[in-house]
Request: fold
Amino acid sequence: MIAGTEKLNEGGSLAALEALARWQPYLIDGYQALSYPDAQSAFTLGLGAIYPTGSWEISGFEANSDFELGIFPPPVPEGADTCYISDHTDIAIGMNAALEGDRRAAAETFLSWVASAEFAGLYANALPGFFPLSDAEVTLDDPLANEFLSWRGECESTIRNSYQILSRGTPNLENELWRVSAQILNGELTPQAGADELQAGLDSWYTPAGM
Reply:
């Protein structure tokens, strides 16, 4: 999509919205009015069998659920043979490039430790579901976090396509995806109509280089 060789209203992106539309009959009663925390609570209270989410939910669900939790990756579409996991840089630490002298030295010392195997282990176990971008071998204590991490050996990595580059203009693609997804689940838009709106919005401001 960044290169302009794929479109939101065809291929895999359209298929994803068509799959989303098929969830509607299985959603909890009154789902239209549920906030994010309400949906989390409904799941931990046993009012839902499946909660589509990511590894960031591990700590909250483990703390608030009185039943055993399990996870599974998204099914691979029929005819495809490659699974993907979404990598998102959610918590990043950097240094102000303008720092000088002792402050710069202190920041560089701190960042060197952040990049160490020691920090990777502390971080991964303090925040199950948030994984350090480190080459170090890290032993995770949380079984669910370990299972999430194991998918790296089975699946290719991808990014959240609506973040960063494709959300720099107006309409913001990330916000538009939330809006259109809700309307599809509510039966207010067909998947094709929603996908066409998304693509038209992106086309109104984003022109890939060389096109």
Notes: The chain is about 40% helix and 5% strand. The helical segments are 11-21, 36-44, 58-64, 101-114, 117-126, 143-150, 173-185, 191-203. Residues 76 and 83 are 6 Å apart (CA to CA).
